[in-house]
Design brief:
With 179 residues, the chain is mainly beta. 4% of the residues lie in helices and 58% in strands.
């Protein structure tokens, strides 16, 4: 890996050697209102990050977020919207953190043993206004298909940056039920 790729992906380092510890993630959701179809929560999310700052960290940056979540369910459809404020640490010494509005929407449809997921995630920070690198007005699209099988769930997904997120990837997996 080059320094440029390391910095863009905020990965551990160029060599990848050494010992790495994990992150600590804490989420608290408080239900504000609910009925048979709607639920509204207030969420607090915080996390630490592993690795020294000068190696651009191995995993996501430490940060915190406060946001409201609204869920609606009816006839096999599920829709979620999130709106709030997010802060995270950067590896730039002149701008050690970024913060801004997060807004996400997701839709899920269940039928028989199938599930389709689709969604858009976004974040608007302030780095673009101070001339820093792209990625500060990120919009990311996600799509996933899941099929329930005898002993688990097979899934195939695609994530694609629609703006200020130069990555696109496919993922495939299988969740094995142990009971």
């Amino acid at each position: 890996t080059t320094s440029e790729v390391r910095d863009m992906r905020a990965s551990r380092g160029e060599s990848g050697s050494g010992i790495q510890a994990g992150d600590v993630l804490v989420d608290v959701a408080t239900e504000l209102w609910a009925n048979d179809e709607w639920t509204v929560n207030f969420n607090i999310h915080t996390k630490t990050a592993a690795g020294p700052l000068n190696q651009a960290r191995f995993t996501d940056a430490p940060g915190y977020a406060f946001f409201f979540t609204g869920d609606w369910q009816q006839a096999g459809w599920w829709i979620r919207s999130e709106l709030g404020f997010q802060v995270y640490q950067t590896f730039w010494t002149d701008y050690p953190q970024n913060d801004g509005i997060l807004a996400n929407v997701a839709v899920r449809k269940n039928w028989q043993k199938n599930t389709l997921h689709g969604g858009v995630r976004s974040f608007t920070g302030y780095f673009e206004s101070v001339g820093k690198a792209p990625g500060d007005r990120a919009v990311i699209g996600e799509f996933r298909y899941e099929r329930e099988l005898t002993h688990g769930v097979a899934q195939l997904g695609w994530t694609h940056g629609l703006r200020d997120y130069p990555f696109s990837y496919l993922n495939a997996g299988y969740r094995l039920w142990l009971d």
